[in-house]
Amino acid sequence: MAFLIFLVVLGVLVFVHELGHFLAAKGAEVKVEEFGFGYPPRALKIGKKWGTLFTLNWIPFGGFVKILGENYEESESPQESSSQEGPRVALAGSTRPSLEDFPEGKSFTEVNKKWQATILASGVIFNILFAWVLFSLGFVIGLPIPVENDYGGVVKNPALTIVDIIPNSPAQDVGLKTGDKIKSIFNSNGDDIGNLSSESVSNFINNSVGSFSMEVNRGGKILDFKITPKTGIIENKKIIGIDMDMVGTLTLPIHKALYEGGKTTFEITRLTILGVANLIKSAVVGKADISQVSGPVGIISLVGDASRLGFAYLITFAALISINLAIVNLIPFPALDGGRILFVAVEGITKKKINPKFAQVVNTTGFVILITLMLIITYRDILNLF
């Protein structure tokens, strides 16, 4: 089930991203040859509309739009351009043809640099806007929010909730997860400690002898865990490795939801940019830590956890993935949108066309590096499952 939910979430996010490219290209009157759901090999031709072939492909992780001239494989002018659906066209004369001669659009290289950059950046923009929509929807239907917050609304049904877990801690070892609501705690004698607050639970854990039992509510299921606190993680203190807060559900009217959704999107986008920048900086000096980077397998597990906690958690998680997808695509690395934007910027500054062979080699090399990195991360994610 988690895999299917992951495919749906990824499919929607990729569709939104590629829709941004598609609409911007149509706005610039550039020909979009194909809009593919998933990656080739091709499984099915859905049909042709607005001069674009819509296809369904066998590899479900992603999607693409094939824009005429974007990858430098076509000639600069439409006189010599070709598409998958027709023969090469050659026109006599030296005058520039009009759109009447090419009703389905012109080449990417035929439009000015501002339009080229807009087409390339539109996928990122659409993912950010979609995250705003998702966060706003979350606030309308009710998002899990700490009791102490800056939103101004009334938080309903607050409960002591695990908001973070330290890696390799007793809490992680027994299977506690972020989002678990602590229902009750029993000491070694089986007595309920009663009052549940961050302070009272922390004091109980620090003063406990041996192991104790904790009941949590995870998406409506009551689970019981036996935990033994550990010393040495924090000096002079016994802990199980969790951060707790009183968290409830906050529901806002639509106008406030849109405002708070926008603020949340901006802040998370800012933090994501800083995080990616720090990771790249660390990679340059050979100190990058990719232990917190997840591939498809790791994300499937997280999507499963979010879906079990409820629809609000799932759409919030989808918004976070959408922002991450946008920022990663904006990195000026070959084969990504950011790398293509960099090519456009270089051409705009130098007033010279980039050699098509050079562009293809660079993009292919970048793609191979990205796939290799993804395989390494996926392998590590699989090992973490066991």
Structure commentary:
One of its GO terms (molecular function) is metalloendopeptidase activity. This protein is α+β, with helices and mostly antiparallel strands. It folds into three domains: 29-110, no CATH class; 113-142 and 253-386, no CATH class; 155-250, PDZ domain (Pdz3 Domain, Roll). Helices cover 46% and strands 22% of the residues. It is built from nine helices and ten strands. The chain has helices at 2-27, 113-141, 170-174, 198-207, 254-284, 296-309, 311-329, 337-350, 356-384; strands at residues 32-49, 52-67, 143-146, 155-165, 181-186, 212-218, 221-227, 230-234, 237-239, 242-250. The strands form four sheets. It has a three-stranded antiparallel sheet. The relative contact order is 0.13.
What's the quick description here?
With 386 residues, this protein is of the alpha+beta class.
* Count of the separate structural domains: 3
Uncertain parts: 74-102
Mean pLDDT: 81
Q: With helices defined by DSSP (H or I, 4 residues minimum), what is the helix count? A: 9
| Overall form | elongated
Could you tell me the number of beta strands?
10
Architecture blueprint of SSEs:
Layout (H helix, E strand, L loop, with lengths): L1 H26 L4 E18 L2 E16 L45 H29 L1 E4 L8 E11 L4 H5 L6 E6 L11 H10 L4 E7 L2 E7 L2 E5 L2 E3 L2 E9 L3 H31 L11 H14 L1 H19 L7 H14 L5 H29 L2
